[in-house]
Amino acid sequence: MSIDLMDSEYQATIVSGLMVQCSDDSYVYAVKGYDIYRKHQSASVFEYVTSVKTSFIRKSLSRFRLLSRLFRLGIRRLFIGHQCILVLVGNELFQFDDSVIFPELVHEFEFGAPLNILYIKEHNKYYFGTYHSGGSSLPIRIFSSSNLRDWDCLYEFPIGSVRHVHGVFYQKKTGRIYVATGDKDSESRILFTEDNFLSVKTLVSGSQAARVVSIIFDGYDAILFTDSPDTLNYVYRLPTNSKFDFGLQVRAGSLIEGPCINVAEKRGSIYFSTVAERSVVNNDMQSVVYHMDVSGNVSRLFACTRDLKWLKKFRPYFMHPTFFITAPSFGDDIFFSAVGIENYDGSTICLTRNENVEKT
After folding, report:
1. Mind listing the pLDDT tens digit for each residue in 311-331?
2. Calculated CA dihedral for residues 138, 143, 147, 150, nearest 10 degrees
3. I need a labelling partner for 117 at 20 to 30 A (CA). Which of 132, 151, 212, 352 fits?
């Protein structure tokens, strides 16, 4: 299997059977089923670290990718915490570091696991927003914690105003905390607080252009990646400290080939992938990986076809084929973990900048 790269400055290798999830200052972390692996920045291979305790049957079944996807088995996501790794399994949150043998259960989410858990060093606190697919009649809240066990509700949206929270993000330049919500036009908003949710203001709202899952900050600007299955999708820039024409800013952005939920930044460059989620507008059966350079120019890196094309009716389990992206602060590697991608599901594509190619 080889990747058809569209940029000769990169070369690709495959990390077979492991899904890279995150990185800290020294290690890259990956998962397989309920097992956690890591690779030091000076090493060439991943080594086994620990496992989340579960039944023998669940652990055995989790090693078969189709069963793992169908029954939602195995580790869902890893996040970097304060001197620890956060492990999301179903609706349960675990943490581990080098002082423990197995990840320790610290919290169970009431309505569903969040899409991201944010640690803000300046606050010494963790933040997340409620995410579920049970309709807009359930309470949608923003929580924070200093110890991962005791969570305080900082803000609650009016019932029915939003479906769920897509993510919580921190802008270092201003000290603001941003929140992205979805999914319908009226529910899609990007909000921010400057006083830890004592008050909340709206940056943009009311259209699918405000439906985002990922935000990257560049000084005072927010770079947004839309996540709309049924409309055209864009990556665009919004100034957060001055007035702007929302529609003009979106149209001035770059059109991309599908919804985007996974983004990573490395030394001023941004890498992001689309979801192969078919609709009348987004009819592509591929997940496309893009690169945005420091000047804002967007280019394709590669594209891969989704798997199980015939299982259209099983949307909750087999749709959303995409790549999760990890861009370590060290080295030259960028990792793209494949979910629902033909030939690569459950593995990771590692791109390394080819130093032998002269830049033009």
Report:
1. 655 544 455 789 999 999 999
2. -50
3. 352
Amino acid letter for position 258: G
Nearest CA among 260, 294, 277, 283 for reference residue 340: 277
Cα 81 to Cα 14, 93, 117: the distances in Å are 27, 12, 9
| Angle of CA points 222, 277, 112, to nearest 5° | 70
Q: What does the block give as tokens for 100?
A: 């423990």
Q: What is the rounded end-to-end Cα distance, in angstroms, of the chain?
A: 29
Residue bearing tokens 């169970």:
108
What pTM, to 2 d.p., does this model score?
0.93
Tens-digit pLDDT profile for residues 114-129:
999 999 999 999 999 9
Residue 77 sits at φ, ψ, to 5 deg, of -150, 155
* Contact by Cβ (8 Å): 74, 83: no
Residues 259, 233 contacting (CB under 8 angstroms): yes
Q: Give me the residues paired with residue 322 across strands.
A: 339
Average pLDDT, the chain: 91
Shortest CA distance to 31 belongs to which of 55, 13, 49, 54?
49
- Is residue 222 within 8 A of residue 265, CB to CB? The reply is no
pLDDT at position 358 is 45
